[in-house]
Design a protein that fits this description.
By secondary structure, the chain is of the alpha+beta class. The protein folds into 2 domains: 337 residues, no CATH class; 134 residues, no CATH class. The chain contains 20 helices and 8 strands. The strands form 3 sheets. It has a 4-stranded mixed β-sheet with strand order 3-4-8-7. It has a two-stranded antiparallel ribbon with strand order 1-2. Strands 5-6 form a two-stranded antiparallel sheet. A hairpin with a 4-residue loop joins strand 5 and strand 6. The relative contact order is 0.12.
Length: 497
């Protein structure tokens, strides 16, 4: 078994470094980290700035802002991956609770292979979104539940509440686990779990529900998720198809092991919990398969537990070899590697990236510093640029592309944290920053519907930008989905260059 652990560690090191450095930029990385910066400065989510998820992540991350203020997005990715690795350790501990002593080493090795040697999974555990922290809370909760102890059951409820406070859709796990404890759990376990869950939700959301100035922003966050344009079966099928592509080794082992189920109880709860969240998230108006990253370990743990009981070719350890081979094949043959090294195809010619997207971000940040040495502000909706340049953006733009509510502000008081047409016009007219960095995402997304902003509105915004800023340089194929980036400097007096 030691050689499989060594090979797993080798594969993890290569894939983790690939995910951290070469993994494509994601707009969400910027505004999650920026929210943490704001909290560290004393700003309150929903009241002082817009935020579309629960408040737990920016609160937790606010204690670690020194990481990305010192090392930029690279540091934030490494820190986030550490959280994801801690989650994997809980998964390994959880699977050991499900199987007999003689299979514990094999089962924990297999689950680490399924999660830690999956390039897609590592990428989404590395980028600073909610997934690594939420997954850590989820796995810690089910690990604590496995002990069937009153105090630990209380702590499990607290952890799942914090998971819901990190990513709103995970609140469903509180209901699923609570019902299971009522039906199959030890006596009064549901009560301890419920107390922990209620206390956790009160700690996570109570301050904002009791703050009348924060309520409009909190309601706007809920509207953002619910008011996006309707259900699209094509997107749903595509999302499920891509999930199978990224996690087929987990599904293969689950299929092999499910016929010889020995461990029921908690393993079945894990499967039902995963299925419940998967079903709800897949029915979202725009379901993305990465939504399932925080809960996919709930599928991998039963797969590893049940598959560890198989003897293929007369050897139980063959299961570890099979898991290793499948995860290596899935990761080193992943289409992500091509996506991260090219900008698609121009007819006969492949458009190769000269550096990773993270490397390009760091270079653009250096170029911005060279045209505005010592500057502290940046007018941009690409918030990962604000993180990399260590600059502030106007606080209403802290959610990047999702700060513009062209469909109309939903609640009185929300104008403090988001912008409508008039608010965006007023902000551009003020030309509040010396430098602007505007990509194809700028002014393009109409929230909450998610439609593209009408072209005449976009032109009007860009016309105002041209009135107040001069173009300094253009960076082609920049950032998420490789759009052009215009870097501009504010005009002063009669400067019309």
């Amino acid at each position: 078994m030691k050689r499989y652990i060594g090979l797993a560690a080798f594969a993890f090191a290569i894939l983790a470094c690939t995910a951290v450095w070469f993994g494509g930029l994601n707009q969400d990385e910027g505004w999650y980290l920026y929210a943490a910066n704001l909290v560290s400065e004393g700003h309150v989510p929903y009241r002082d700035f817009f935020f579309t998820q629960g408040p737990v992540m920016p609160i937790v991350y606010s204690a670690f802002t020194w990481v990305w203020k010192g090392w930029g997005l690279l540091g934030a990715r490494i820190f986030t991956l550490f959280l994801g690795v801690f989650g994997m350790l809980f998964a390994a501990g959880l699977v050991r609770r499900l199987v007999p002593d003689e299979r514990r080493n094999l089962a924990s090795t297999v689950v680490v292979l399924l999660l830690g040697c999956n390039l897609y999974h590592l990428y989404y555990l590395a980028i600073p979104k909610t997934y690594a922290l939420a997954g850590l809370f989820v796995l810690a909760a089910f690990y604590l539940l496995s002990f069937e102890h009153a105090a630990l059951t209380f702590a499990a409820g607290l952890c799942l509440a914090f998971a819901a406070g990190t990513r709103i859709s995970l609140g469903l796990l509180l209901a699923v686990a609570g019902v299971w404890l009522v039906v199959k759990g030890p006596r009064f376990a549901w009560l301890w779990f419920g107390i922990g869950g209620v206390l956790g939700l009160a700690l996570a959301y109570g301050p904002y529900l009791l703050d009348p100035e924060a309520l409009p922003g909190l309601f706007a966050a809920e509207l953002y998720h619910s008011a996006r344009e309707g259900f699209d079966p094509v997107m749903m099928v595509g999302s499920v198809s891509r999930f199978v592509r990224w996690y087929w080794p987990v599904l293969v082992l689950l299929g092999l092991g499910i016929g010889g189920i020995r461990e029921g109880g908690l393993a079945r709860l894990l499967l039902f919990s995963f299925a419940s969240v998967f079903f709800v998230q897949t029915l979202a108006p725009h379901p993305y398969e990465d939504y399932h990253v925080p809960v996919v370990a709930l599928l991998a743990v039963p797969a590893a537990a049940w598959a560890s009981g198989l003897k293929i070719e007369g050897r139980a350890s063959f299961v570890a070899l099979l898991a290793l081979g499948m995860t290596w094949a899935a990761s080193f043959g992943s289409p992500l590697i091509e996506q991260w090294s090219t900008n698609a195809q121009d007819r006969f010619w492949t458009r190769k990236k000269l550096t990773s997207e993270l490397g390009q971000l760091r270079q653009v940040a250096h170029d911005i510093e060279s045209i505005d040495p010592g500057g502290s502000e940046l007018f941009t909706q690409d918030i990962y640029l604000a993180i990399e340049t260590r600059r502030k953006v106007p606080i209403q733009m802290s959610m990047g592309p999702f700060c513009y509510w062209g469909d109309g502000l939903p609640y009185r008081g929300a104008e403090k944290v988001v912008l409508d047409d008039a608010g965006m016009v007023s902000l551009i007219e003020q030309a509040p920053c010396e430098v602007a960095a505007l990509s194809g995402y700028s002014f393009a997304i109409d929230v909450p519907s998610g439609r593209e902003t009408p072209m005449d509105t976009q032109i009007a915004f860009w016309t105002l930008v041209k009135r107040h800023y001069n173009l300094v340089f253009t960076e082609s194929d920049f950032g998420q989905h490789a759009t052009p980036l215009l870097v501009l400097k504010k005009k002063h007096g009669f400067d019309d260059r």
